[in-house]
Amino acid sequence: MPYLVVAVVFVGALCAVNLLLTLAVIRRLREHSAQLANGRSTRPPLVASGTALPEFTASASDGTTVSQDFFTGPTLVGMFSTTCAACHERLPEFTAWAGQLGPGRALAVVTGDPEDAGVFTAALAPVAPVVVEPPDGPLARAFQVSFFPTFYLVDDRAVITAAADAPDRLPLAART
């Protein structure tokens, strides 16, 4: 009989702990749902408009040297990663906008293994110089990229005027 009492108390305590954990998970899910409903995401914020780019230098696949001097007018910059599924989805949108802006008004940066960047380079090279760099490369650091894909508008003073997670969320219509 004492073993039966101990077993019942143990199962009861186990059920109580399970109930508390389930309630904690439900509370956490409600918090995330509320954040999503309010338009807030768990992504880190994008770099603020008005941020000046720090000194950097990189070489594009076409031989173009990219630094602050590259920006001679409003320029669309796309930051892609070879390991990012959303980057593949946004690629056609970026190439369409970059094609409309004309020569010298777009720059693409692909982060990842150079062998894996071939698909991106082939698609982006007709519309923009393409810089392939390792994770946390000089351009990713300069633009303070915290997630991919990220898109920027940069003015002729190398100052970021807008940032978004999709090209169509940038004020591009006024630039074309």
TrEMBL record:
One Pfam family linked to the record: AhpC-TSA
Signal peptide (residue range): none
Annotated keywords: Isomerase, Membrane, Transmembrane, Transmembrane helix
Molecular function terms, GO-annotated: isomerase activity
Transmembrane segments: 6-26
Cross-referenced Gene3D superfamilies: Glutaredoxin (3.40.30.10)
Annotated InterPro entries: AhpC/TSA, Thioredoxin-like_sf, Thioredoxin_CS, Thioredoxin_domain
Lineage top rank: taxon: Bacteria
UniProt keyword annotation of Protein biosynthesis present: no
SUPFAM superfamilies: Thioredoxin-like (SSF52833)
Thioredoxin domain segment(s): 47-176
Protein name according to UniProt: Thiol-disulfide isomerase/thioredoxin
